[in-house]
Amino acid sequence: MERKTNSEDYLRMYTQMVRIRAFEDQANQLYLSAKMPGLTHMYSGEEAVAVGICTALTDADRITSTHRGHGHCVAKGADFRQMFCELLGKEEGYCRGKGGSMHIADQSHGNLGANAIVGGSMGIATGSALRAKLQDSDDVTVCFFGDGATAQGLWYEVMNMAALWHLPVIYACENNGYSEYTATEEIAAGSIVGRAEAFGIESFQVDGQDVLAVNELAERLVARCRKGEGPFFIELKTYRYHGHHVGDINRDYYRSKEEETIWKEKRDPIVNFGQWLAKQGVASDTELEKIRAEVKAEAEAAVEYALAASYPDVSEVSMHVYAPNDAA
Amino acid sequence: MREITLSKAVNEAIAEEMRRDGAVFLIGEDVAEAGTPFKVLSGLVEEFGTDRVIDTPISEPGFMGLAVGAALTGSRPIVDLMFGDFLFLIMDQLCNQAAKACYMSGGKLSVPLVVRTNLGATRRSAAQHSQSLQALVAHIPGLKVALPSSAYEAKGLMKTAIRDNNPVVIFEDKLMYNDKAPVPEEEYLIPFGQANILREGSDITLVATSSMVQVCQKAAEILAAEGISAEVIDPRTIVPLDEETILKSVRKTSRAIVVDEGHQSYGVTAEIASRISEKAFYHLDGPVIRMGAMDVPVPFSPALEDITVPAPEGVAENARRLIRGEMFHAA
Ligand SMILES: Cc1ncc(C[n+]2csc(CCOP(=O)(O)OP(=O)(O)O)c2C)c(N)n1
Predict the structure, then answer these.
(1) Is B60 a catalytic residue?
(2) 20 to 30 A Cα–Cα from A74, which one of A129, B185, B188, B275?
(3) Which chain A residues are closer than 8 Å to B121 by Cβ?
(4) Residue (of B147, B292, B109, B159) closest to B233 by Cα position
(5) What is the pLDDT, as a whole number, of residue B331?
(6) Strand-pair category, B237-239 with A178-179
(7) ipTM of the complex, rounded to two decimals
(8) Interface contacts (A, B; CB < 8 Å)
(9) Mean pLDDT, chain A, as a whole number?
(10) Quick check: is B189 in a domain?
């Protein structure tokens, strides 16, 4: 396997995964201490997916995200302060508090936004790829979605067009085994990769807990997309550590504690990659520990900042319903 | 009388009707073991089994289509649409297929199905999980639309909806699931098209639907303390609409405010207000005032969200202005 030889890249991927975990830990605390309005869906456990893929992208490349979108947002380069401000509905948030967790977007890094409609971004991502083709741009769009979203008919319509027109889009299915409170086997007949293959789309399965494997595949497919060889489909096997959302605490009826423990103790993407880095001599345990401590401090500071930040002025409520037209 | 939550009331209504009629079944996402995210349907799968309480993939247009086909051929499905906002996904099956089958077939076909869904903002769920889309379906001939405003209403209207031979969309207020109200043990149904006068009054009529009924009840209390007597009417169903009860009230009070949580423009309030204006014109002492949610997507920030929805003091203030004889319009 052709791997990055640059230890800086490895450490950046490690740091980005740690950042996602730290962000989610803080977000969960905000919920538990009743400081966050509404509910949110945690990405913890799935970090290698977002980081492995987004590391293969530039700021000019776009992604579309989901209701479980904090990980994609961080991996695409977002700033903690603006993210926490958004989660708390503050003026300095990425969407000036109008979107919240389920609609967080970061245009400056090519994140077209989270989406509260399951499968709602499949058309958007494919349309972004159509624009790239029409405008002779070599950027690539990655469409993140869950296994549950493969049940949305929209996907089949846009995959057909993406394949017909060779659009530079990568469909990345984060298969965490559950769609809300139901196991994937109960809601998906046949094979998931087979769905994309039926349209003649080259499809791959990869271990979503292995950031290097994910990144290596993503780098390859992104490069091929830029040459007009898209679209592609990737199924990434992964796991969400928390409930469907932060309020989903008692979940024994659909998922066992033992299963959760196995994933957390044996398959953790951050722990396993950290061990690999130490073994390869890229970084010592102490150095990794230092990264984690720094990220935690950054996340805590960002939370403090966001808690103290101000809400948008009420006059903002009717702003941004329509985009302004250019002055004549 | 015992008091139960709105959630329990809906659950009881569905269970009773499923016991009564073997053709009734439930279909939707996480309706079985999970009993929906709001836990409204807990326990039904244990009693009726997975053949009649059917968990689906996240395929709203798909299972809505299945329900239409099943209803056309002898079943009586209840479609569980987790959020009212997802109506946009099922519009073709609901509005082009279900709503029109009876008419297009010259009365030979019927589509006895219920879509149970919800409405309401201020739950910090942002723009795609907070809409109140009743006007959208009320616009389509062939669909009936029920808007329960309490546990009692929810049970009685749900039972009627299930027995109706037409597609009915019933919206529950998701903020009300844990609100309790007296609900008799004995069976009862609430007929469609019969408004409920919750409070009698002589100075002004407040017509309110669903979530806005409580708002108007509170407004009426504020006004009562100031010596203004408000009548509060809940139409219960907006299709069919009990025009008579509303008109009779307005002919008595000569003033009216209509409040509904859908957007201010082109909404349920506009329809009811214009019927009042047309049919009780000579009895009116002022314009009929409409109050709905602001014409903006529902914002996430608590600082913004709360001001988008009518509140008791706003209703009371508009009532005072009408009574003072001011000529104005809301929003
Ligand atoms: C169209 C639509 N239907 C239903 C929902 C409710 N819902 C939110 S997340 C979810 C499960 C999504 O599962 P999956 O796509 O596998 O993503 P995961 O949550 O596992 O990351 C459901 C049913 C929704 N938001 N949008």
Answers:
(1) yes
(2) A129
(3) none
(4) B147
(5) 61
(6) unpaired
(7) 0.94
(8) 121
(9) 96
(10) no
Mutation target vs A (from B304, B306, B308; most A CBs, 10 A cutoff): B304
- Measured distance CA(A71)–CA(B14) in Å, rounded: 40
Domain extent, residue B285, equals 196-323
Q: Mean pLDDT, to the nearest integer, of A63-87? A: 98
What's the pLDDT score for residue B327? 78
Pair A111, A124: CB distance under 8 Å: no
Q: Is the pLDDT of residue A328 over 70?
A: no
The Cα–Cα gap between B129 and B109 comes to: 34
Please state the φ and ψ torsions of residue B28, each to the nearest 5 degrees.
165, -175
**How many domains, chain B?**
2
Contacts of A11 (CB under 8 A, 6+ apart): A277, A282, A283, A291
- Per the CB < 8 A criterion, the answer to whether B270 and B260 are in contact is no
Q: How far apart are CA B231 and CA B210, in angstroms?
A: 16
**Given CA atoms A97, A101, A106, A112 in this order, what sign does their dihedral have?**
negative
CATH code assigned at B247: 3.40.50.920
What number of other Cβ atoms are within 10 A of residue B179's Cβ?
17
B80-99 average pLDDT score: 98
Q: Do B91 and B127 lie in a common domain?
A: yes
Kindly report the CATH number assigned to the domain that includes residue B11. Answer: 3.40.50.970
Residues B51 and B153 occupy one common structural domain: yes
B159 and B98 within one domain: yes
pLDDT at res. A3: 45
Decide if B40 is inside a domain: yes
Residue B187 lies in a domain: no
* Residue with the two structure tokens 């530039």: A58
* Residue in chain B nearest A103 by alpha carbon: B126
Residues B140 and B43 in one domain: yes
Domain boundary among B182, B217, B234: B182
B260: its two tokens:
């509904």
| Contact across the interface for B295 and A321, Cβ inside 8 Å | yes
Distance from CA of B36 to the nearest CA of A (A): 9
What whole-number distance in Å separates Cα of residue A210 and Cα of residue A264? 14
The token pair at B10 is 């809906």
- In a domain, residue B191? The reply is no
Whether A68 lines ligand 1, by a CB cut-off of 6 Å, is yes
> What is the per-residue pLDDT for B11?
98
* Residue A188 reports pLDDT greater than 70: yes
Q: Which residues lie closer than 8 Å to A164 by C-beta, 6 or more apart?
A: none
| Beta pairing, strands A169-175 & A178-179 | unpaired
Confidence of residue B328 (pLDDT cuts 50, 70, 90): confident
| Pairing state between β B24-28 and B76-80 | parallel
Residue B277 φ/ψ, nearest 5 degrees: -60, -40
Q: Mind listing the pLDDT tens digit for each residue in A18-36?
A: 999 999 999 999 999 999 9
Asked if A70 and A43 touch (Cβ cutoff 8 Å), the reply is: yes
Sign of the Cα pseudo-torsion (B233, B238, B241, B243, in order): positive
Averaged confidence pLDDT in chain B: 97
What is the topology classification, in CATH, of domain A7-182+193-308?
Rossmann fold (3.40.50)
Based on the domain organization, do B68 and B161 belong to the same domain? yes
Distance CA A242, CA A176 (A): 11
Same domain, residue pair B89 and B206: no
- Model confidence at A5, pLDDT cuts 50, 70, 90, reads low
Averaged over A172-188, what is the pLDDT? 96
Prediction pTM value: 0.96
Is residue B206 located within the same domain as residue B173?
no
Q: Are residues B242 and B176 in the same domain?
A: no
